Amino acid sequence: MERILAQAPDFFTPGNVGLLLEAAGLTLAMTVVGCGIGFALAFVLVYLRQTPGLWALPLRLICIAYVEVFRRIPFLVVIYLVLFFIQTVSTDASLFTIAVIAICLYAVAYTADIIRGGIESVPQTQVEAARAMNLGRLQTMIHVVLPQAWPVIVPPAIAFAVSFIKDTALVSQIGVFELTFRGKELNNQGFSGILVFGTIAMCYFILSFPLSLLGQYLENRLATPRGQRRARKLRRA
Amino acid sequence: MPHLAVSGVHANYGALEVLHGISFDVDRGGIVSLVGPSGSGKSTVLRTLVGLTRATRGTVEIDGDVIDYRSARAIRAARDRMAIVFQQYNLFQNMTVLRNCTLAPVKIKRRPRSEVEAEARDLLALVGLADKADAYPDELSGGQQQRVAIARALALRPDILLLDEVTSALDPELVGEVLDTIRRLSDEGMTMLLVSHEMGFVREVSNAVVFMDAGRVVETGSPAQIFDAPRSDRARDFFGKVLRH
Amino acid sequence: MDYTWQFNVVWRNFDVLLQGAWLTFQLGVFAFAGGTLVGLIGAAIKTYGPLPARLLVDVYVVFITNTPALIQIYFLYFGLPEVGVRWSSEACVLIGLTLNAGAYLTLILRAGFLSVRTTEMEAGETLGMSRLQQIRYIVVPHIAKSIYPALANFFIVVLVMGTSVGALIGVDELTGTAINLSTVNYRWLEYFTVTAGLYVVLTLVASVGLALLGRWAFRVKARIV
Questions:
Q1: Is residue A227 scored above 50 in pLDDT?
Q2: pTM higher than 0.90
Q3: ipTM of this model?
Q4: A129–chain B Cβ distance below 8 A for any pair
Q5: A75 in C contact zone (CB under 8 Å)
Q6: Which CATH superfamily is domain A2-236 in?
Q7: Subunits adjacent to chain C (3 or more Cβ pairs under 8 Å)
């Protein structure tokens, strides 16, 4: 305990604090960019997975297999696979890029199921009405299905991204200068492990906790407008 | 030449055949009603016409043009000429009444928005809902939603209007407003094919009645003949039960 | 891309990978079992405990679920020796994962506790059941049925995401073994491809097993894939 107190002034120097702030920014940036792109690609995956017709069967199977396989592989293994695969095709990809690609590949698999659930929550009759009016599959998706699926999709998608802030700790292993990497570095410099990893844990907590509250708030807010409308209707009836 | 000619149409739900060779004609400006017990395939006929259920055999002709339901382009052409109104209205919940009516004409037929909106407002006035253009579907009563659904179908400028049990989801006091709308359309010469349980109404507006049972047409005739002097035992039995109420 | 895949060396060391997979499975099972115990205690306190204890559980859950498992394990492995607590890397992973899973399982089990309606208990009472019988025949089957899918799902999460973290403090579970082996002869891509495949097989076996168990024990129709 004395050791921690003795080290604290040396540890919380402006230089170290700046380093940690920067690292926290990188952690957040990786998560946002990776999950954001992953989320967008997941829409494509879900859309392809719904391609009708016998000819598209292999396509559908690939989409299903992608989701199933990636949900069964540790993120750490995905990171290594992406790292070494990218390094065999290109030597000038930054570690940040590699980390973002790994996050993205993972996020696609997890958010695809969230998106599919949201889309399936829209009654099939809405789709039929649109198709009978000659709206194409994509137009039906954009104008009719997604606007109604949105409130079901957004809260769990945000919850996923927020929980993934923590999982990005694993990319410290390939040398991205994010929070966990800086923590190990400071620990190696001789600072107390309790002090360093306690501080790093607090940094993650400060990133994750408010955002998870925001996610819960959004869930409530997105869920209400329909309920209010229904309540108005019930009052009239 | 009939406006719509259906002959020998078979259709499947998955592996199960639900229509076993349906044939009937609808003349231009005429109203034909499909009646019969539930599960007899009446609604499936309408769904098949707009390609929501796949026809496996038989032909459908509009103004003598045969529609090949194996081709996506032909289905689009069929949907261009026929509009369907569903039993449960199926209005798009995320759009205002006006946008429900303008979506397809603007996005699919690529007509100018201002023109489409003006026309949609006229149609909403026709169904008596001019003041509801900016309301959302779940703010309306069932009868109002069903009238919006009719306006939305009309905004597509169809040659033929298909109405699928449009009053069966409504409270009795709301049925009248929807039937009035249909009457007005028939006065204007719209060709209509309707599935209905409102036997009094069917008798009043129809030029011809098609009685169906178990995926087949049992008999076809004028309303008076079908209701008062059915030839088949099945129809006699059915109307005996229905008309007594 | 002109990369030549060479799997020979991987197959030669396949038995070592299998040993790693076995350790992964053991870690997953023990961490999940320990986590379930912690979660049961946490959920029971959250539902029936006094206010201070409930707050304590809340702090535990909120803190654990908002920080990475890796940092928690680093804390045990690099931090605790400073206060004289020296655990092996295996013990750190197991204890860390147990505490981590315990927080998530508190949430899952609490949802199960809340899903039991008092009317069902009352129904049991009117049938002349004792309190213990009510728990045995009404509460437990009800909770099991309502949360079994979530539990089965979370077991896979612990088995995959959880245990692999051990690799980073030198535990020779599946991922750690793959890292060790590939550092020796640089066939990283081959080793990690096979490792990924082993994880898929391992979790599929676990999923099928859990689905069968659920069907047999609780009549739950859990989805296998």
A1: no
A2: no
A3: 0.89
A4: yes
A5: yes
A6: MetI-like (1.10.3720.10)
A7: A
